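name: query_chain
kind: protein
chains: 1
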Amino acid sequence: MDYIAPEKVPYYVDCEPLVHGLGYLIVELMAFKRQGNWQIRVVIAGPEGVGIADCSRVHRALLPRFEALLSSRDIYMEVTSPGLDRVFKNASEFSVFIGKQVKVWNTDISDWMYGTIVSATTDSVRLLTDTGEKEIPYNKIAKAKLSSAV
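structure:
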């Protein structure tokens, strides 16, 4: 699994302080142009989870920011929660979900490992499993997802 620093994601640096100020973290941010219109997808996480009202607050705050950044009013923006069983797209997501239960496909053992995220760096994640803490380098993780059934 690749680690892409959030700061390297286009528009992240412009949007993160605003989203953080509302009490949320950006899990994923994508901006691309399709058929002449901008498509924005933002996935947010919050300490108490994320509901429709939370997504609406972030949407109202970010839309004017994107209109200014992109010099366009032809913007379709979607703000969502990560969901209960989110599949991680970037290893940097581990730091967003510290304290949450996950399952990772460890290529060293060719099987799923279940645990709670204790910490995450730019190189590895530390999980608390039923047999103790395990540190797994991202290059040994083929897949990872949140798990509500650990």
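note: The CA atoms of residues 102 and 147 lie 5 Å apart.
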